[in-house]
Design goal:
It is built from 6 helices and 9 strands, in the order αββαβαβαββαβαββ. The protein is an alpha/beta fold. Bound molecules: S-adenosylmethionine.
C-alpha cells in the first residue's frame, strides 16, 4: 500500500526527468563495459531490469556458450556476455540501437554478431544455449521505434508472436524479465496458449518495484 503510494508520487517526476535526460546520447557502463545510449534507444540507466539481468548473467557460466540477447537495445547485456567469453548474438528491431552497438563492440574490443530482426525472423540459429529477453510490456500500440522498447501492442501482440516463435525453437535456457508493473497474469496466460510456462527463476525488489526473471519452459517438446 505505502509502496504503491510512494510509486504514484515519485513516478511523474521520474518520467519527466528521464525524458529530459535521454534527449542526448548518454554513457552507461557495467563492470568496465561502456555503451553510448542514443536518444531513441531504451535507457538502461532508469529502469532496474537491465541491471538485474546483468547481475544475473554475472552468475551464469556462459564461457563458450551461445547467447542471444533478443531485443538488445544498447547491447550492454550482449557485450557483457561477450566479455565473459560467450559466443554472442545481439538482435533488435531498432537500427539506431544496432549502429551504436556496433561502435560500442569495437570500442570495447568485443565480438558480437549483430542482427536486425523482428523477434527471431532473421535469426538463423535454430537454438542458443541462452536467450535473454527484457521485453516491452505495456499494452499500447507503439507509435515509433523508441516506443517499441516499452509497448507490446494493445493486445500484447509482441508476446503472442514471441511465444509462438519460441514454441517452435529448441533453445536450452530462455530467461525473460518482467516487473510487477506489467500484467504478468495476462502474459502467463498467453504463454500457456502456446504450451509455455513461466517459472520464477529469481525475484528481486529494487526501489519499491518487484521484478521477476522467468525461465521460459516449453510444456510440449518440439
Ligand atoms: C525493454 S528494451 C530492453 C533493451 C535491452 N535488452 C536492455 O535490457 O537494456 C526492449 C527492446 O526490445 C526491442 N524490440 C521491441 N520489439 C521488438 C521486436 N519485435 N523484435 C526485436 N526487438 C524488439 C526494442 O527495440 C528494445 O530495444
Amino acid at each position: 500500500m505505502i509502496r504503491q503510494l510512494l510509486k504514484k508520487l515519485i513516478h511523474p517526476f521520474l518520467k519527466y526527468g528521464t525524458q529530459m535526460y535521454s534527449l542526448k546520447p548518454r554513457p552507461y557502463s557495467y563492470n568496465g563495459i561502456e555503451v553510448m545510449v542514443m536518444p531513441d534507444v531504451f535507457p538502461p540507466q532508469y529502469t532496474m531490469s537491465t541491471k538485474i539481468l546483468l547481475d544475473f548473467i554475472n552468475h551464469l557460466d556462459v564461457k563458450n556458450k551461445t547467447v542471444l540477447e533478443l531485443g538488445c537495445g544498447s547491447g550492454i547485456i550482449a557485450l557483457y556476455a561477450a566479455s565473459k567469453e560467450a559466443i554472442v548474438t545481439a538482435s533488435d528491431i531498432n537500427t539506431i540501437a544496432l549502429k551504436a552497438l556496433k561502435k560500442a563492440a569495437l570500442k570495447n574490443t568485443l565480438v558480437v554478431d549483430i542482427i536486425h530482426s523482428n523477434l527471431f525472423t532473421a535469426i538463423t540459429n535454430i537454438s542458443f544455449d541462452y536467450v535473454i529477453i527484457n521485453p516491452p510490456y505495456y499494452p499500447k500500440t507503439p507509435k515509433n521505434i523508441k516506443e517499441q522498447a516499452w509497448f507490446c501492442g494493445e493486445s500484447f501482440e509482441y508476446f503472442k508472436d514471441l511465444f509462438h516463435q519460441l514454441s517452435k525453437r529448441q533453445d536450452k535456457h530462455v530467461f525473460m524479465i518482467l516487473s510487477e508493473d506489467c500484467d504478468i497474469n495476462t502474459i502467463k496466460q498467453i504463454a500457456l496458449d502456446y504450451q509455455i510456462q513461466l517459472d520464477v527463476e529469481l525475484e528481486k525488489t529494487v526501489i519499491a518495484e518487484q521484478n521477476f526473471i522467468f525461465r521460459i519452459k516449453k510444456l510440449k517438446p518440439f
